[in-house]
Amino acid sequence: MNLEKIFGDPGLKRVYKVLFVIALIFFFCVGFFVEPHHIYFPWDRLPVFNAIFGLVGASIVIVFSKVVVQWFISKKEDYYDR
Amino acid sequence: MTGSATFIHPGLIMIIGAVLVPLIPKGVAKKVYLLLLPALAYLSVMSMSEGNFWVIDFLGSELVMGRVDKLSLLFANIFTMAAFASLVYGLHVDEDGHHVASLIYPGSAIGAVFAGDYLTLLVFWEFMAFSSVFLILYGKTKKAYDAAYRYVLVHAFSGICLMGGILLHFGDTGSFAFNHVGALDMGTTLILIGFILNAAVPPLSAWLPDAYPEASVSGAVFLSAFTTKSAVYVLARGFSGTEILIVLGAIMAVYGVIFAVLENNMRRLLAYHIVSQVGFMVCGIGIGTQLAINGTTAHAFAHILYKGLLFMGAGAIIYMTGKRKLTEMGGLYKKMPITFILFMIGAFAIAAVPLTSGFVSKSMTISAAGESHLQFAWIMLTLASTGTFLSIALKIGYYAFFGKDAGLEAKDPPLNMLIGMAIPAFFCIFMGFYPQYLYRLLPFAIEYHPYTAEHVVASAQLLLFTGLAFWGFLKLAAPKNKLTLDTDWFYRLFGRFFLCFAHRVMLTIDEAVSNAYRTVLLKYSKLVAAESFVFDVKIIDGAVNGVASVVMGLGKIIRRLQTGQLQHYALVVLIGIVILFNILLFVL
Questions:
Q1: CA B326, CA B260: separation in Å to the nearest integer?
Q2: Residues 6+ apart with CB under 8 A from A49
Q3: Is the CB of B457 less than 8 angstroms away from the CB of A30?
Q4: Contact call for B480 and A62, based on CB within 8 A
Q5: Which of B197, B255, B535, B572 sits at 20 to 30 Å (Cα–Cα) from B402?
């Protein structure tokens, strides 16, 4: 099985990026046309809440983990062997 | 309904069958036998009807080895299925001991699931701990031996908590029956601690990412399924609706994700995701509504399959390349294409991408949090969902399979490993397309429709924009050659602190005492010894010698008296009589 043709081709890589951006825009816009079934929380009324949550939440997770937590608990790999 | 005609204990099929493994000749026969046991166990589970079976009277208490209801059936169903797929994956292993452990371990987990009383549960609980440790030992590295030692200590502690709790509970209620626990008291709290320790709830979770990554390649696959999920089962059985579990579960879900984002060791990253995923289940148990318990059990079912698949994929990479760290991988999709595809199915399933099993199961718990208006739980679980997609599908996907080609020589693993991976991969997609397969197994019959436009769009937005964030932080998110500390730091360094204490404090005291002894006591005792010597020679010896010489002198004189002639003795006697006679005369 040769996946290199599918994933390794620079031309196709560009196509994937474009498709990704189109999907982002599409689902962002579709959010405005979908009626929520249940309103449990105030943000359920916001059509693009999940998009914002995904972007902000993931950024917080990365930055918090890689900057704050790492600063506290990252040690050299032989920490326990010394 | 009590009887034994329709119930054959599937756990015991595997445990007793495991004992015979070394007797089966190597080759095809052994492989067939190994697969036959979980297959028979699965058939046994499938043919069961609900009720209490194998009820034994023990010291006036009832022990129930076979409590069959929808909850126990669901877990037994997935446990036997996972055992089968994992055994297929590990068929190439040549060590009988490994196979024995990998049959007894799931067997005892199934035993724990069917236990209707605390004593039976405790026995299988301990069996589970002590059989699983061998799967870590078979990692056969110094690190694995050390981790196994810590693992067994932690689980022994869990067993002790459980036993203490059971005895206190028995003291309070007079019964060993294991049912839903109402209010928390001393006994039930200890039982809860025993359970949440096995469920890896922080801060009692560090044993999991410490031990699982060190296990053997197929051992880790077994480990990922049974210990934590049997804990989820007992929590769902005994502690549903316990509010503290909502908070613990919500924290746990994010905790696992934060550590996973930091992690470089692939299997350790996946181990942190067990913590995160079990967090969803623990939170669901805490919420305790029918939808939440359904969500928890559905999630446990789906999770065992995709997490097993992910550990299989990671194991395949380790098996073929010997590399464990993401920083040493890269470009593997070209070398191991089938592994890549199967792994990504698991990765998409755990991230709850639509048309996978994660999508139809995970959302139930989040919906249950919404339905109960639990904002904190909802936010934490949704945050954990983004983190899951981020750290497994995107991070591992990108850095292990794409990214910079590390130039590793590799190919897809042996056929049995690929089939082992294909089984859960099939179910990940099958359940995504046909969720009713999963839903009809759930403990409560309720209507739930995962594929609503709202749900699909919300998920797509969440996942796509998480992808965008990852793209933006590609450099920052890159794995680093670092080790992350966890709460095991406290007990891992206890030994070092103890040595340090012994070295610094105790040794100093010891030296001070030795010096004092040398400088004061030793000199003093030398002086005393010298004086004693003089006393001994002059006084004691002098006295002894003096007495001896006096006795000798007297002896010489007395010797002359002993002439040996009878006449002399008779004369002396005569003189004596005369003297005595004269004395008598004078006296009288």
A1: 12
A2: A43
A3: yes
A4: no
A5: B255
pLDDT in tens, A48-59: 899 999 999 999
Residue holding tokens 């004992």?
B19
Q: CB B371 to CB A64 under 8 A?
A: no
Tokens of B315: 């194991």
A82 within domain boundaries: no
Max CA pair span of chain B: 149
Q: Do A60 and B383 touch (CB under 8 A)?
A: yes
Non-local (6+) Cβ contacts of B469 within 8 A are A54, A55, A56, A57, A58, A59, A62, B390
CA-based nearest residue to B178, from B131, B220, B122: B122
Cα(B409)–Cα(B428) distance, rounded to whole angstroms?
30
Q: What percent of chain B has pLDDT above 90?
A: 69
* CB within 8 Å of A79: residues ≥ 6 apart: B483, B485
- ipTM comes to 0.94
Q: How far apart are CA A19 and CA A17, in angstroms?
A: 5
CA distance A70 to B564: 111
Q: Which domain holds residue A47?
A: 7-73
What's the DSSP call for residue A76?
A: -
Coil, helix or strand for B511?
A: helix
Residue B120 and residue B105: Cα distance in Å, rounded?
15
Cα separation, B533 vs B167, whole angstroms: 67
CA end-to-end span of chain B: 120
Q: CB-CB: which of B476, B483, B486 is closest to A66?
A: B476
Cα–Cα nearest to B386, from B468, B480, B263, B269: B468
In a domain, A81, yes or no: no
pLDDT for B3 equals: 46
Report helix, strand and coil shares of chain A as percent, to nearest 5. 70, 0, 30
Q: What is the mean pLDDT of residues B414-425?
A: 95
Nearest-CB residue to A31 (from B258, B375, B457):
B457
Task: Mark yes or no for CB contact A3/B333 under 8 Å.
Answer: yes
d(CA B262, CA B485): 11
Instruction: Give the N- to C-terminal CA distance of chain A in Å, as an integer.
Output: 45
pLDDT value for B1: 45
Residue B417's closest CA among B221, B139, B269, B274? B221
Could you give the number of structural domains in chain A?
1
Residue among A44, A58, A67 minimizing CB distance to B470: A58
Domain assignment of residue A1, yes or no: no
Unique residue bearing structure tokens 């067994």: B152
Helices (H), B239-289: 244-262, 266-287
Which structure tokens are listed for B509?
Answer: 């005291």
